[in-house]
Amino acid sequence: MTIMNDETREFVAMHRNEDVRELALKSKRVEGLDLPLALDQIAGWQIARKKLPQWASCEGIVYPPHISMEQCSSQFTAQYKSEIAQTLFATAATVRARMSDSAESDNQTTKSEPRLSDSVESVMQTAKSAFQLSDSPESDTQEMKMGTWMSDSPESDTLVARSSMVDLTGGFGVDFSYLARGFSQATYVERQRHLCDLAEHNMAALGLDQARIVCGDGVEYLRQMDPVDFIYLDPARRGEHGSRTYAIEDCTPNVFELRDLLLAKSQYTLVKLSPMLDWRKAVADFDGTVREVHIVATGNECKELLLVLGRPAQANARDSVDGAGSYQCLAPRVFCVNDDQRIDYDSAAYTQGLRIGGKPLPDAKRYLYEPNASIMKAGCFDLVEERFGVTQVGPSSHLFVSATPVADFPGRGFAIEAIGGMNKKDIKRLLNGTKQANIAVRNFPLTAPQLRKKLKLADGGPFYLFGTTMQGCDHVLLRTSKI
User: Fold this and answer.
1) 224 contact partners, CB below 8 Å, separation of at least 6
2) How far apart are CA 479 and CA 418, in angstroms?
3) Could you read off the pLDDT of 169-228 as tens digits, one per residue?
4) Can you state the angle between helices 6-15 and 35-51, rounded to 10 degrees?
5) pLDDT for residue 153
6) Strands 400-402 and 391-392, sheet pairing
7) Which residues pair with residue 181 across a beta bridge?
8) By the 8 A CB rule, do 87 and 128 touch?
9) Cβ distance 275 to 305 under 8 Å?
10) CA–CA separation, 196 vs 315, rounded Å?
11) What long-range pairs does 253-261 form, CB within 8 A, spacing at least 24?
């Protein structure tokens, strides 16, 4: 790794808010100035200020070239992975403590494998408060050492597990830096020497004294290492010729081939996969070893599919593995996350995702709701209908209506002003002189641009026009305004 000299560091500090392209053209040659390195640092910091504000506020971070910054995890998704890890262990610790208290009071001993309760929000919030900095504007400008993230509260003592983790696909190290904070021993493994050098420098700058950097092949390290509590993998989704790939077996490493070894070497393994994958198929392909599914979106855009692999829930090995060598355990719990909108559910109770004709539309259709991207990906539309008291507009439309407003709906809400068909009379009544509208279609014969052209509407304005198909296969338009 190239270390910045004083001239380069001074140039970066002086110009880091300026346009990198203009700097490349107009900057004068100065003795000792490494201009390409300086431009990489300025561009990296500018991306980090939005994507990784806590990193951007830490003095001493060295950033990789532009493409690595674009591909690395965001602060939100990295922090969420840390929450997953800490919730797994905090929940297990809580269960064990409750079991111990119960055994004491009953004067008996009970052995049981801990599993997540139906709601983990309280544990999640505890983990979040201990591991997450404030998102206030001051955090963008203050100089901070990341070693001060942890509070001195009793909760922090509980969550700083006297345990170990390994990241077998280290990369730039963003995910590792957040996951490592919850473990007393944390190992980063990466094949590329320049990334290892970068990680060693940055982890020290972030105050992660427990971090250990290993330059080597992650699969070989996995085979030789001692068991740990937690493993993280983010398989490379590029083929031999650099083309994009999504299938698990086409990624490097192939996690399917490593499944049994991962289960033998860790209590839990967190695998990051492409959001393009069908999560139900991925769960089936892992053959009963997936304990949790996390569908993570931010800004209403699906970013990651995360699977938690774990040993089967049964204590008896003969019950855990059938004659064909496949594991038998409970259906995984599914977590749908879109920024601060979060719901979770037992996937066994909602296997179809949609009940066709199971609930008639209300007579009064006053409100329209569109689920966020994570719920759309999960396909848990019957769960949404049941939990929030709304009704599906129609099969495959993935929109919901209600007679009364719904608080905290995980998605966008609209007040319905008018509903009509596609005939000229209805369209004239619906538009009522409107020349501008935001248009969206779901399960509709026209695309949004085609519908806009047909209605001769400009984009934007306060109105939202939805084209969809209602129960009974009627194509309708709904004129709405955002709540």
Assistant:
1) none
2) 5
3) 999 999 999 999 999 999 999 999 999 999 999 999 999 999 999 999 999 999 999 999
4) 40
5) 35
6) antiparallel
7) none
8) no
9) yes
10) 39
11) 253/168, 253/169, 253/218, 253/219, 256/285, 256/286, 258/219, 258/222, 259/286, 259/287, 259/289, 259/309, 261/222, 261/223
